[in-house]
Every structure is written in C-alpha cells, then in structure tokens.
Amino acid sequence: MNLLGCEYEDVLRVSGKTGEGVHELLEQIVERIPAPKGNPDGPLQALIFDSVFNPFRGIEAYFKVVNGSIKKGEKVKFMATDKTYEADEVGTLKLKQAPKKEITCGDVGYIISGIKDAREVKVGDTITSVEKPADAPIEGFEEVKPMVFRGDLSCRVRRF
To answer: Where is the Translation elongation factor EFTu-like domain (predicted)?
Structure first.
C-alpha cells in the first residue's frame, strides 16, 4: 500500500454502483475526520473566499464561518471596507443555493445583501456581526492586486 500511503486494514471496500459499504464509509468519516475548529458561541467571524455578481440580486459572497454564526436578517459588517449591510439571505451551497435561517461555525455558505459594487466585497475579508462584533479580522487578509494575463499565438505555425 505504498502507493496510497496507508495500511491495508484502513482501506474500505465501497461501491457507489451497488451501495455496498456506503454505511460503513459514512460511519468512518464521522469517526476519523475531526470536527471544524472554532467557537460556535463566539462573535461572528466569516472568511470570504469568493464572490459573484448576480444582476438581479447583487453580489453573492461565499464564505466559511470560523467562529459564531450568521442569521438571515442580521446586520453584518465587512471589516476591510467597514461597510454595514443586512443579510437579506444566507444559505448553504449545494447543487443549487439552499437558503437557511442560520449558518453556524464550520459551515460554508453564501450571503446576499443587495451589494451592487464589487469593490465592496473583497476576497479574504472578514464578515462580523454589528451587534456582537469580533475584536479583529481573521489573519492573513491582503488586498488583491488586479492583473491582466496575455497569451500570444503565432499565425505562422510552421516555424514552431
């Protein structure tokens, strides 16, 4: 088992086609993989890792809750821009967005607040609660530097 870097006894026999071993696989996932770290009762700290623009709803920011929780209708602050918004919708990411009343510590989700300007949502920024704010943002935030990439292709292919 040198190729996989594990012991033979640790390999589970699972078939997605027949369903054989799936129950045991799920049990082993719960047993072997640790729960996310963080304080579910602490002040909200959510790390933005991506965002997209929806022409009908504004910016949809994707985040991971590191501490605390975020609720629909809650007033939140984006710490890098110091702007305050209301969480019009929060939810989890599945095949489609699944709106929820609350996203808790360790979960990955999205927030829609009617933000129209993409410069107000920065990747790496921390979302916190206005009512019970975090003392400091999540470490490691750096302003993204816009770049343009260019590739040149020759029309004269024979030379290559």
So the answer is: 61-128
Tokens 């990955």 identify what position? 108
How much is the mean pLDDT over the chain? Answer: 90
Tell me the residue length of the chain.
Answer: 160
Q: Which residues of the chain have pLDDT under 50?
A: none
Q: What local confidence, expressed as pLDDT, does residue 151 receive? A: 80
Strand partners, 103: 70
Contacts of 35 (CB under 8 A, 6+ apart): 106
Dihedral (CA of 53, 139, 103, 35) sign? positive
Alpha carbon of 113 to those of 56, 77, 86: distances in Å?
A: 12, 11, 6
